[in-house]
Design brief:
The complex is a heterodimer. By secondary structure, chain A is an alpha+beta fold. Chain A has seven helices and four strands, in the order αααβαβαββαα. Chain A has helices spanning 9-60, 77-93, 98-125, 143-158, 174-183, 206-212, 223-233, and strands at residues 131-136, 163-168, 192-195, 198-201. Chain A has a four-stranded mixed β-sheet, with helices on both faces. The termini of chain A are far apart. An eight-stranded mixed β-sheet of chain B has the order 3-2-1-4-7-6-8-5, sandwiched between helices. The longest helix of chain B is centred in the C-terminal third of the chain and has 43 residues, at 287-329. Chain B is α/β, with parallel strands linked by helices. In chain B, α1 runs parallel beside α11 (348-372) and α9 (256-276) crosses α12 (379-404). The chains are: A alpha+beta, B alpha/beta. Chains A and B meet through α1, α2 and α4 of A and α1, α10 and α11 of B.
């Protein structure tokens, strides 16, 4: 006769709770580290806000100051770049979240403020600066936008003084929408880059952009610049 | 990645982790029962045992197999060997004839009918109360039988299987299998303690003759007769034990393709025997076998396949991204990698995967401890994780496909 087998139901339950605990620990650690990343983004953003406010104040005092007394790179190109990379990475690794969207909106506003300020400084103090506004979208599978992103990163590496301000069309932020209206940008023509008031839609590689923006030659770092930078670094 | 894909991924990973935790909890719960014996009881009376060696084109290995049986530390008058040539087309029969004058060895020749027919032929001429089999590509260690027989002191135990270890690994594929077989030593021991063993392998499983008298002969069983007999025993409440300190060495496939063919047969057998015995699944009266072993096997098949598809999907996205990058700037990589911790992937799935692999490594080490008596790291463990992650899904997918299209698998 067949022997009835005893089942250790308690053990099945205990194993379930242990497994669940391991899962929750993994999720907790992930959440804690993600929280730290978002805090870091917030902190960078706060720093940029303060620095930007400082620059704006400097700018307000421009009338009373000589251009030579305004620090030429007052506005944070490196910090904005760092923030841009981290937000972009967070979008792919963390995914969409309200906090991240909010940070991205603040970042876009900072970019616009920096752009306006630098434009004024350039026209008043004659700084050699080149600006590119870059419009892309994350709401649809825009492979051309991905390519344009790579091309602009490569361009930025070649021309460190170039200022690229990137705006996500999908963000629906009123200030960005105003910029889009000014330059007639629509989501059907993305990616789009704007330089010196001219709009260029579709993908453009580094060489194309160099041809479209001849002023880039003016900000090409000279070999001696690199040497002196390295020396000053020591 | 959409919500459905993520949900499936997390559910399967949870179940895979559940299986690993189940084994680990069993180990900590029952580890005092896992004793490696150093001495045998000199006063024990050992029963008569018949070992059947089914052979089909085994001219190169059968001599070693039979010699290892003859060298068993077991009373000679109580050990009988039945060597069955299942219609070999090579010189296996001539090799078997070299053993015909040894008193406790009987040799038989029959027309080819498959391994189960050779085994059944051997069973039909067996007169002892205990019967075992040994595939003609395996070798027993001398103490194996003496260590297995005491398990039958418990009258409820109907079959005992040994630890199977890969003999003389040379290729990376063999080393990977060595780690896998060691892992099996641990898993089978845990399943044995819980009464959930689902296969009594060809290399030296010993049965009470009552099993075949009560339940009938071996069946064809999709070329996995050793799995089907275990399913049948589980259905009838016959207990199967695992003797971890009885060691049998087996010749493992040397190449990836040979391994693929072998595993295709095994997995095909698991899928189809499980379909044949689906009436047992999740029925509490069949115990751990029905509630844990078979469901865990099913989960592992789907997990491996899903993870494989997920890997292919991720690889596809990676390649597409690289193509876009080349089209954009002409290079595969850009700039130097950032050392900022911010760019470390801290997604929950990464930590879950780390925990899961930690549990798998722990199991591999426990397998090494049970098989070798000590915890020892080997590169085989790394090969196992790397190679099986890539090629195991291939035989899983193929076995499922063959099941769906009702096509047979080849033996070799």
């Amino acid at each position: 006769m067949k022997e009835e087998k005893k089942n250790d139901w308690k053990k099945y339950l205990i194993v379930f709770f242990i497994t669940l605990s391991l899962f929750l620990i993994a999720i907790y650690v992930s959440d804690a580290l993600t929280g730290r990343k978002l805090n870091e983004l917030q902190s960078i953003q706060d720093n940029i806000s303060i620095d930007l406010l400082s620059s704006e104040t400097q700018y307000s005092l421009l009338n009373e100051l000589d251009c030579s007394q305004v620090s030429p790179n007052s506005v944070l190109s490196d910090e904005l770049n760092d923030l841009s990379k981290k937000i972009e990475y967070s979008e792919t690794s963390i995914g969409k979240s309200d906090q991240l969207t909010q940070l991205k909106e603040s970042y876009s506003l900072l970019e616009i403020k920096d752009y306006l300020l630098m434009k004024e400084l350039t026209s008043r103090c004659g700084q050699k600066s080149v600006f590119v506004l870059y419009f892309y979208t994350t709401s649809q599978n825009c492979s051309e936008c991905v390519k344009q992103g790579y091309a602009l990163t490569a361009l930025k590496e070649k021309y460190p003084a170039l200022r690229v301000y990137s705006f996500d069309y999908a963000l629906n932020l009123s200030a960005v929408e105003t910029l889009e209206k000014i330059y007639g940008i629509k989501d059907t023509v993305l990616p789009a880059i704007v330089s010196n008031g001219q709009v260029y839609t579709g993908f453009h590689n580094v060489e194309d952009i160099e041809k479209l923006i001849p002023k880039l030659k003016d900000i090409l770092p000279k070999p001696t610049d690199a040497t002196s930078t390295a020396a000053s670094g020591n | 990645m959409n919500v459905v894909m993520t949900s499936i991924l997390y559910t399967l990973t949870f179940l895979a982790m559940y299986v690993e935790v189940f084994f680990l909890v069993t180990f900590f719960e029952r580890h005092k029962e896992i004793v490696t014996r150093l001495d045998d009881n000199p006063n024990r009376v050992y029963p008569n045992v018949t070992i059947i060696v089914p052979c089909w084109n085994e001219e190169k290995t059968v001599t070693g197999t039979v010699e290892s049986l003859l060298a068993l530390d077991y009373p000679k008058e109580s050990l009988h060997l039945i060597l069955v040539d299942d219609g070999s087309t090579d010189s296996t029969w001539a090799v078997l004839k070299t053993f015909e004058n040894i008193p406790n060895v009987s040799i038989y020749h029959k027309d080819n009918g498959g391994k189960h027919t050779a085994m059944n032929y051997g069973i039909s001429v067996t007169k002892t109360d205990f019967i075992g089999c040994l595939d003609a590509d395996s070798y027993v260690t001398s103490s194996a039988l003496k260590r297995m027989i005491p398990y039958f002191d418990d009258p409820k135990v109907m079959s005992v299987s040994p630890s199977i270890i890969v003999a003389n690994p040379k290729t990376i594929i063999e080393w990977a299998q060595k780690a896998e077989y060691q892992l099996s030593v641990y898993i089978k021991k845990m399943l044995g303690l819980m009464g959930g063993i689902h296969v009594t392998p060809g290399p030296f499983s010993i049965y009470r003759m009552k099993v075949f008298r009560d339940l009938g002969d071996y069946k064809y069983a999709h070329k996995t007769e050793d799995m089907e007999i275990a399913y049948r025993m589980q259905e009838h409440g016959y207990r199967i034990e695992q003797c971890h300190d009885a060691v049998v060495y087996t010749k493992a496939p040397r190449t990836a393709y040979a391994l693929y063919k072998q595993r295709l047969r095994w997995i095909y057998g698991f899928i189809n025997n499980t379909i044949d015995y689906r009436r047992l699944i999740m029925k509490s009266e069949y115990g751990t076998f029905a509630l844990f072993t078979v469901p865990a096997g099913i989960v592992s098949i789907f997990s491996a396949m899903y993870l494989f598809c997920f890997m292919v999907y991720s690889l596809f996205n990676f390649v597409v991204d690289k193509i876009l990058r080349i089209q954009a700037v002409g290079t595969l990589w850009g700039g130097s990698p950032s050392l900022d911790w911010f760019f470390l992937d801290t997604h929950a799935f990464i930590f879950i995967t780390i925990i899961l692999y930690g549990l798998v490594l722990t199991s591999l080490f426990l397998g090494s401890k049970l098989a070798n008596g000590k915890v020892k790291f080997s590169m085989g463990m790394v090969y196992y994780i790397l190679i099986y992650s890539v090629i195991a899904p291939l035989w899983l997918i193929r076995a499922l496909w063959k099941t769906v299209t009702r096509r047979e698998v080849a033996w070799r």
